[in-house]
Amino acid sequence: AMSSFAKKPKVVSVTGAAGAIGYSLVIRIASGEMLGKDQPVILKLIETEPGMKPLKGVMMELQDCAFPLLHGLHGTADLEEGFGDAEHCVLVGARPRGPGMERKDLMTANAAIFETQGKAINKAAAKGVSVLVVGNPANTNSLVLAANAPDVDSSKVMAMMRLDQNRAMGQIAEKTGCLVSDVEKVVIWGNHSNNQYPDIHHATVKGESAMKVINDEAWMKETFIPRVQKRGAEIISARGASSAASAASSAIDHFRDYVYGTGDMWHSIAIPSKGEYNTTPGLWFSLPRKCLGDGKMELVEGLTFNAFGEEMMKKVEKELIEERDAVKHLLP
Ligand code: NAD
Ligand code: LMR
After folding, report:
1. Which of 81, 215, 249, 251 has a CA-to-CA distance to 32 between 20 and 30 Å?
2. DSSP secondary structure, 29-81, as one string
């Protein structure tokens, strides 16, 4: 039978496509899990020169999957070619941390990558491009990228916080014996780092206050918060490598919800602050937002903090300012 596709293919560019996250991610984009089962995609996969050989293997596998939605497949180490006409970019290509490192230890190795890529996206990507930064330190890499891409709407340059949100939901579901789908309105404030504030004060479990259902402040402070903050390190020490399938899955969740919208659901997304919740403008500070579809977002306003929350907010803000200062040389 002849196939027909009503929708025009969308170009999706992925950096680091031959790495651990990339391997999990590109298969799911090509199968339609990110942009929909009726949305054809053209994949542009970007790797370093040494990454070109393993990338060839990944591309062979993509071909061998015979995905009906995959209408084009390109692999390149040339940034302008790789970002050419991109409507969505998932920026994964960067060094991962090993045992004993903090994510900000990757700053010198990784931030410069985002300077170069920002310039290339600015030149080559489609108008209205949206970008998800996964490579660490994701929030500050986003800042570097946007500063080097003046023609790109910086509110469409997002640092990935969805993995932290999903981790928090998983912990609450386990603690309460409910399903993750019963858990709503968890917020991850601030940075994708061990200073983030995973906040359950507004969360609900089956519509009831999570604080009331859990009724265990010591668990919240001593188990839940540090566990979510340090989950990346916990996985590195168990697996000997940083999280990959869960990171890829969160990137899929992020873009699917961003493009299709999820009504009243809350998602933690880091885009440049405009000073909301007393945050410093221009920091990629994660705040709760509703996804209205087609990339439109609305801030969840009017949430309040207790003294503990205020302190957590100040601490993570300070860290984001320090990270910004450390990359000053990359900001034009
Ligand atoms: P990996 O080493 O397995 O893969 C990275 C790939 O990127 C490699 O194939 C490498 O060749 C490629 N690469 C490196 N520099 C590049 C560049 N300039 N352009 C294009 N490609 C480049 O690492 P991984 O496990 O896939 O992790 C990738 C990044 O994602 C790391 O920085 C990691 O810390 C981060 N990460 C972020 C989150 C999050 O929630 N934000 C979660 C997990 C991992
Ligand atoms: C994660 O949260 O799993 C990633 O950011 C990888 C890491 O270094 O923790």
Report:
1. 81
2. HHTTTTT-TT--EEEEEE--TTTHHHHHHHHHHHHHHT-TTEEEEEEES-HHH
